[in-house]
Design brief:
The chain has about 400 residues and is an alpha/beta fold. It folds into two domains: about 180 residues, Periplasmic binding protein-like II (D-Maltodextrin-Binding Protein, domain 2), CATH 3.40.190.10; about 190 residues, Periplasmic binding protein-like II (D-Maltodextrin-Binding Protein, domain 2), CATH 3.40.190. The protein has 20 helices and 13 strands. Strands 2-1-3-12-6 form a five-stranded mixed sheet. A four-stranded mixed sheet has the order 8-9-7-10. It has a two-stranded antiparallel sheet with strand order 4-5. Helix 2 runs antiparallel to helix 16. It is globular, with a radius of gyration of 25 Å. It starts with a helix and ends with a helix.
Length: about 400
Amino acid sequence: MKLLKTALLGSAAAAIMASSALAQARVVKYYADFDPAPLAAFEAVIADFEAANPDIDIVLQNFDHEGYKTSIRNFLSADSPDLANWYAGNRMAPFVNAGQFMDISDVWTDNNLGETLASAEGSMTIDGKQWGVPYTYYQWGIYYNKDAYKQAGVEVPTTWAEFIDNCAKFKEAGIDCVTTGTKALWPGAGIFDYMNLRTNGYDFHMELTAGKVAWTDDRVKNTFAEWAKLVEPGYVTANHAAIDWQDAAALLVQGKAANYVMGNFAVAVFKDGGMTNDTLGFMVFPEITPGIPRGEEAPTDTIHIPAGAKNVEDAKKFLAYIATADVQTKLNEALGQLPVNNQSKVGDDPFLQAGFEMLSTADGGIAQFFDRDAPAEMAKIGMEGFQEFMVKPGNVDAILDRLEKARQRIYK
């Protein structure tokens, strides 16, 4: 009897241990770097997922942005989580190339993500495989003052030639055709990205920012030649190198400038300055080289499964959930950004609607912005060059030579 009781106790203990091990196996460790609003949105989505999957526990550990940049390089090599936040395009390439992100092409295939996340597939693909799931992005493009267009008597252009023709008329009317503030350098990178995307296309742009193309290549020179049509006649705000992007926004608000190449986050600044949906417009950056598939600029936030993940099955289940239309709708309502899933819905904000339509129909690819697509040192040198070109376009050959020397050194 005593032996039987011991055996029963042993069986019970074993069952408890097995149950505990099983419970432990269904934990998904998720490392992220959310600001407060995105964190709250993700916590709500995680709660919904756990309610639908009561046997899975998503344990989220949140880092500050700067700390995360350092931490991810450590934890991918040592104590790996099951999920980790990062970014698309060339920003994820070093981790893919180092074997630290897992190939999740099966998640894409099994959930038809090539259709529903089509616009971002290119930026999630390396060597024909997909390495993460995008859940939000926001568009760049041209924001314009409708009253300035009326004052100059011009229509919204669809081609670069029409845009440049308009610039001459804006100048005659005493209006800057394009405003920007490059004191902090990065706004000029947005202009360069679109000039190159429209002149040479997304694939070439990605090769350039990945260090695979010389900055002295004739195709790069063609980009700057097109850009010179805007810069040399003085169609850009003259003191752009001395002002911040918000100062340039004020010029658009006041009707002293007609167009601004900027991200959608600027809409709040335009409206705080007094613009309304009746006076503020948005357009797709016009075509330069006919026939090139339309690539767009839309920094994209993503989630990946590290190669050292322990609970891959449930991590993939969560990624499939994050990719769904309803979840991306809910997330991006809270974020004030755009869902990547083209079956999602956006609210009645006309700029989000315009961005969603533009990005969902982009057939060329989604660039991530120059300082995400290029390594940090190259991005800084490149953006300094872009600013100098917009001040002194005659220095273009010296600028490109300098960028090429930097490329040869940085991408070794």
